[in-house]
Design goal:
This protein is α/β, with parallel strands linked by helices. The chain has 2 helices and 3 strands. β2 (about 30-35), α2 and β3 form a beta-alpha-beta unit. The two termini are about 20 Å apart. This is STAS domain-containing protein.
Length: about 60
């Protein structure tokens, strides 16, 4: 399992969320836990990758 801590990040554009999603999809058997994401990150993930279970978003 990998952790990404984003508490100091105020904004991530779609390209940044895409990079995160592609990284998670290419992990052999792991997951990515995103801690303290910007408020819009979960919405972008749900919009473009609704069934991507390799990413877990921990609330802010």
């Amino acid at each position: 399992m990998s952790y990404v801590e984003l508490s100091d990040v105020g904004f991530v554009d779609v390209a940044g969320v895409t990079a995160l999603a592609i990284t998670a999809m290419n992990l052999p058997d792991g997951r990515v836990v995103v801690e303290h994401p910007p408020p819009h990150l979960p919405r972008v993930l749900e919009m473009f990758w609704p069934n991507l279970h390799q990413i877990e978003v921990a609330p802010r």
